Amino acid sequence: MPDLVVLHYTAMAEASRAADWLCNPESEVSAHYLIARDGEVLSLVPEALRAWHAGAGAWGRVSDVNSRSIGIEIDNPGNAPFAPKQMAALDTLLDGIFKRWHIRPERVIGHSDMAPGRKVDPGPFFDWKRLAQAGFSVWPQMPERVAAPDMGRFRALAAGFGYTSDATDDVLLSAVRLRFRPGHSGPLDATDMAIIEDLAARYPVDVNATWV
Euclidean distance between the first and final Cα of the chain, in Å? Predict the structure, then answer.
């Protein structure tokens, strides 16, 4: 039974080419849905069946992400904003998925979250904050006081939120920033600590998973 939703971008020029690739057995990759730039939603694999969209990686205690997730490919080359019609279509699609499978907003992740360093989609142009405001993802709240940078604590808190895939310190930090501080660089800082402390405290991974 699906307990996660994983978002991807196609990194291709056209949705039709992505659909052909996703439906080609020789590609050995598939997804449940593909959202075109005009907002059209293509259903490619039934939600109750396994699709091969995630590959190696983990989120919390889920190490076989393909068997526990619904994969959504969004038509985007990776270097441009996502079309408003696409985002509206994603909202509608997620609303139905949430109702059918009782998935919570914190269980919607990016490919880059479950496979840090190996994948970067849906990338820095994907508006995670907007998705959270619509009720289909989560966003950190910044506390008045922030903790001093501590990579050991950062790693522990990141795992508490869900980042349990094996990754170096730099790769893990980049993955968290890609989603919550896109474009930011430099060493671990107090804002990074505040973000991950809030997320780990409010959304501990697996606690609200339907299979626990």
Answer: 12
Asked about 73 being catalytic, the answer comes back as yes
> 27: Cβ–Cβ under 8 A, 6 or more apart, which residues?
21
pLDDT tens-digit series, residues 30-40: 999 999 999 99
Whole-prediction pTM: 0.95
Catalytic residue from among 14, 26, 40, 73:
73
The b-or-e profile of 2-17 (16+ CB within 10 A means b, else e) is bbbbbbbbbebeebee
Q: In terms of domains, do 115 and 196 share one?
A: no
pLDDT in tens, 117-154: 999 999 999 999 999 999 999 999 987 777 799 999 99
d(CA 59, CA 205): 8
Residues 158 and 124 in one domain: no
- Report CA 56 to chain centroid distance, whole Å: 14
